[in-house]
# Entry
Amino acid sequence: MQFLYHKYGGDTIIELNGEDLNYIIKVKRKKVGDKLYVRDESTQNLYIYNIENIKRSKAILTLDSSSVKSNISKNELILGWCKIDIKVLEKTLPFLNELGVKYLFLIDCEYSQKNFIPDIQRLERILKSSNMQCGRSDLMKIDEFNSLEEFYKNYPESILIHFSNQTLDTKIDKCVVVGPEGGFSQKELKLYENRHKGLNKAFILRSQTAITSVASLY
# Structure
C-alpha cells in the first residue's frame, strides 16, 4: 500500500478504526512508532503521520509533515465500454486505473447486459482502493451513456474496436469504444461506418481483455 485515504487527512490528530485499522495493523503489520502516508480525497497533499497509540478498536496518529505531491495520470485516453457483467467490470476496473485511464464511460449498447445497473459509488470505492495500492493520486472519472448513439453525438471523433485491417494510431485515436461480449449490432456498426479499427492480435478477445489491451497501448 502506497498511502491511505482518510477524510480528515491534514488534521493534527486522526483516528483509524474499522477496516482501515484492521488492514494497517493486521495486514501491513504497522506498529507504534511507524510512519504512515495519508491523503485526503480533495487535494494533492501527501501527509506523513506517526502512529502514536494502538488500541483494540482504534489507532491514534499525529501529523509529522505534509507536502504537495501529486501523482496524477497524464493519459488523456477516453474509453467507452459497452456494459458487461458487473462482476467482470469490477475485476477489470483496477487494471484500467493502474494503466492510467482518465475517463471511462459505461454505455448501454444493444447487446449489453440488460440487468446491469452500475453502482457508481461502489466503483469509486474500488478505484480508491486501487489508488492506495498503485500510488495514483487522482481518481479515474466514470460516467454513463444511455446508448452508443448518445455517446457518438458527444464524441464524434471516437473509434470503434471491431474487425478491421486498420489498427489504432495512439497519436490520433484518443477516444475508443469497446463492445460487450456479444459485439455490436448492425445499427451500431453503421453508425460508426468508416470509423472501425482493430487490435493487432491473433485471437478473438473477450471484452475485458480488449479494453485492457487498448488501455495498455497509451
